[in-house]
Amino acid sequence: MNVFDDSPLDQESSTKREVLTSLGVCVAGLLLSFLVWGVLQERMLTKPYNGDYFTSSYGLVFLNRLGGFLISGAMLYVFAPASSNAVAYRFAFPSVSNMLSSWCQYEALKYVSFPTQMLFKCFKLFPIMVMGKVLGNKVYPTYDYVVALVIGVGIAVFSVSTEELDIGQDSIGEIETVGGTICGVILLLFFLLFDSFTGQYQARLFNEHPDLSPYQMMFMVNTFSMVFSFVTLVHTHELYALCEFVYDHADMHIHLIVFSLASTVGQLFIFKTIKAFGPVIFAICMNTRIILSILLSALIYGHDITPPGMVGLLLVFSAIAYRIKRKTDADGKPLIKWAGMNDDKSMDVFHEWHEHCDM
Predict the structure, then answer these.
(1) Which GO CC annotations does the UniProt entry carry (predicted)?
(2) Is 5 inside any structural domain?
């Protein structure tokens, strides 16, 4: 599979190898890019640069979207996908929600700790499914909601046991007031709301415009987000302070460049995954990424993974495996599919896989 091939994937007419290769590339791309992105986000927002902390949430949104605008613009120019008939202003909706979700999670770190932020991300799958019902009239079986809850609980157990979770501290370990903590929690709740809207609205655009390229989506979303965040910086008089901080701290430059690259590549894989497999598969991938992010954090900062943490891991992956099994068993509508899945040979593969899952 060519990572830069934005032609739509027709699962029903593609071979098993093509579909699984595409899914594997999407999953690997999502995990790698967002693991790097998460490590750098924590570094820039929770660790000092020569004794000074970077505190401009909208500034980080703007710099991130500026990098995404330049990189996605270059991709759009080089690969020149066919034009789409999608109306430009409709890209503003996911752009605003994407910008606000980023701002909410960055700003929340002023009031709660980084592990608390990660804990709230555990429950993404449920609001995404609810938003899918609202925006797309999608119907999910009851067990989908139960699985989403178990995934959230499993990652929460893992997070709490692995990280020193203290709701009363901010990201740099300073004690927060009750009011500040409540403010941080509310910001994270809004983050979940905006983030779930973004993915489902992008899926809606892809469904309504099959000719829409991920490069076009990426470029338009980054363009609107960059403009909106720049206007906000000017309006709040933060622009000069942002430029001064970045100029005065040269060791931050490489972090910003890699952060923007990881974010842009991650957006590419987000669009490719949503377009090919839907936002629920994407959400499952990103929940897995949360587990790996905490594992990486534990490795870097020396946190111990306790027995309850292993129980949390088991809960998450058991729930994901159970959901996949139920989907493949229910009405012949698997989460992923390929040409010839209903023939005897393909069913034998699934039966063998199910038997191993049942062991």
Answers:
(1) endoplasmic reticulum membrane; Golgi membrane
(2) no
pLDDT of 231 reads 92
Quickly count: other Cβ atoms within 10 Å of residue 3's Cβ: 13
Across residues 4-29, what is the average pLDDT?
A: 71
Q: Is the dihedral of CA 261, 266, 85, 228 positive or negative?
A: negative
Q: Does residue 2 belong to any structural domain of this protein?
A: no
Q: CA of 255: how far to CAs of 260, 298, 312, in Å?
A: 8, 21, 32
pLDDT tens for each residue of 39-97: 888 788 878 898 888 888 888 889 888 888 988 898 888 888 888 888 888 999 999 99
**Number of other residues whose CB lies within 10 A of the CB of residue 235:** 10
Q: Is residue 1 part of a domain?
A: no
Look up the pTM and report it: 0.69
Half-sphere exposure of 8 (CA within 13 A, CB side): 16
Domain that holds residue 244: 11-341+348-357
In whole angstroms, what separates CA 170 from the centre of its chain? Answer: 23
Please say whether the beta carbons of 4 and 75 come within 8 A: yes
